[in-house]
Amino acid sequence: MGDFYQNGVITTLHNLTQRPTEALEAELTEFSRTRPMSLVLPSLYSELQGPALDNIVEELKQVPYLDEIVIGLDRADRDQYRHALDFFGRLPQNHRILWNDGPRLKKIDAMLKAQGLAPTELGKGRNVWYCLGYVLAKGRAESVAMHDCDILTYDRSLLARLIYPVANPTFNYEFCKGYYARVADDKLNGRVTRLLVTPLIRSLKKIYGNLEFLEYLDSFRYSLAGEFSFRIDVINDLRIPSDWGLEIGVLSEVNRNYATNRLCQVDIADCYDHKHQDLSKEDDNGGLSKMSIDIAKAIFRKLATNGVVFSTETFRSIKATYFRIALDFIETYRNDAAINGLEFDVHSEEESVELFAENVLKAGLHFLENPMEKPFIPSWSRVRSAVPDIFEQLIEAVEQDHQEMMGKR
């Protein structure tokens, strides 16, 4: 059971009573009459064959309040897209699949790329961006939720709690971030949040003081959670990174556009587990190594836009400060694991911190060497300004893919 403590500048909505999912869904069904709701599912084709997504779809079949489900499908050929249509076809809600590797959507992507308006790299950020564009194009939803497709511990209460704060018409929240305890198989998970993000924020606060953005980031209990929800108007001006900085980038954007009293976080699960990335100590372009570099760069970029000046010397100080604070956190987590009877591998934790410390410096030096780098995908309001019929093109491409494949059954 969660506590009721409010920490930082972001409202925290706790799970105090284990309220039945059916009671939440009854309210959400009532809300949906005036505030229709959509769900975005960014998915790799490989996740259709994984251990989590089949259960997620079975749970979603029971959700009564969703007006629309939008699935972004990456890394799928024609036969795999056809299989995805069958796989998701059991959903009773209105739903469509964006076949991102299909010729029609690739043609739109090439057209936007020629104008400097398309995502610059493949990945979850690109998938999410096109899905959000499609949601805007359809105009069905007033409230939108998004979660990953690899959640092994999924049940539909997660979605109900996630979307409730932006669906309830008596609440004034524009954006909501999900959080949870990353505990599974009798051990603590969530290394990048525990051992990189929190110690890095505390290090930056020690060096630069309690800057507003650092206080804001430090208020989130799980800043890297891939689950969030928002009112539809948030999407228009949202610029998101296409790399692993997606979650930090989204938090930065809503911080730029909205007062903190319009933002909240909500406890969505007692237990949460999904697929785990390798540490990838020898490869900066994969696993947690790339993730840590992208996340650190995202934080540094945001601070720079707020007037913080960096240099090679300051990044060396940040690295040293981070390393000491992160090692202290290992002791904290070791004790937390012990009192809860969880396994804890100190050697593995310190290996992670050593890698992250090196990557904090690498991220800083990359930032200094590439000050004009543009990691953000343009907002949909900018794209519509440049290509006024882009929404019509998106809808037509998705519908033609769907009709063509359904007609061949």
Structure, explained:
The chain is of the alpha/beta class and 409 residues long. The chain has a single domain, classed as Alpha-Beta Complex (Spore Coat Polysaccharide Biosynthesis Protein SpsA, Chain A). The chain has 15 helices and ten strands. The strands form two sheets. Strands 1-10-6-9-5-2-3-4 form an eight-stranded mixed β-sheet, with helices on both faces. Strands 7-8 form a two-stranded antiparallel sheet. It is globular. The mean pLDDT is 93. This is Glycosyl transferase. GO terms for molecular function: transferase activity. InterPro entries: Nucleotide-diphossugar_trans. Keywords: Transferase.
State which percent range the strand residues make up: 5-15%
Query: Which structural class is indicated by helix and strand composition?
Result: alpha/beta
Which architecture would the CATH scheme give at its second level?
A: Alpha-Beta Complex
CA-atom Rg in angstroms: 21 Å
Q: Please state the overall shape, judged from the principal axes of the Cα atoms.
A: globular
